[in-house]
Structure formats: structure tokens, C-alpha cells
From TrEMBL:
Source species: Pollutimonas thiosulfatoxidans
Protein name listed in UniProt: NIPSNAP domain-containing protein
Similarity comment: family membership: Belongs to the NipSnap family.
Domain of life: Bacteria
Residue span, NIPSNAP domain: 3-100
PANTHER family (UniProt xref): NIPSNAP-RELATED (PTHR21017), PROTEIN NIPSNAP (PTHR21017:SF17)
Amino acid sequence: MIVEERRYSFQPGKLQVFLQRYAEQGMAVQRQYLPHLLGYYVSEVGPLNQITALWGYPSFSAREQWRAALFADPRWTAFLHEVRPLMTQQECRILKAAPFFEQTLANLLKTDLLPGEDNETSIPQP
């Protein structure tokens, strides 16, 4: 199991615009393909105008498959076309759970599965 940490930095004054557009347009589409949202955070101290999202995946191959399906959806690409000009930087890190946390992460990922889904390869359907 892996966790993807995605960090987005925004132009001053544009973070709230992004959050509103994401809540209204992007989140529902993204969650259809990426069901394991572990957290979505706004910076309060340190570098400001940043969002950090944590996404859980059963494997790197599941991540690749699920994200490919997301980017094939025209609603998602239209959303990105709208919000990318608000961003100044994007960062992505893939994190592997420490041995003592692997089972906890596995349990977190299982709770988001739909009945009949295979945790390793099922691509959530819109």
C-alpha cells in the first residue's frame, strides 16, 4: 500500500477560488475514480496558499490505472483547464507505510471499497 502526497501552491488570493471550484466541480469527479482520500488540508503556518491532499492506493499499479481513468474523463480535464492557471507549483511524493502502520493503512483503504470491488485492481466506476 502507498500514500500519494500532493501539494499545490496558489497565487495569493486564489486559494479560496480553487477551493470553491473544487468543491463544486472537481471533488465529485475525482472521488469517482480515486476513492481513498485520506485527508485534504490547507496550510495555516509556514508557506501559505497551499493545499496538501493525501490519497491512498493499494499499489502503484492501482494508482496508475485509477489516475489514467480519471484523466480520461472530460469533466476532469475541463476542471483542470479551469484551475491550473490559479496554481504556481505542484509537488507529488509517494510514501510507503512504515511496517507497524501497514495494517492500519490497509484497514483504512478497505473501508472505502464498494461491495464486490477488488482492492488491488478495481477501477471505481463513475
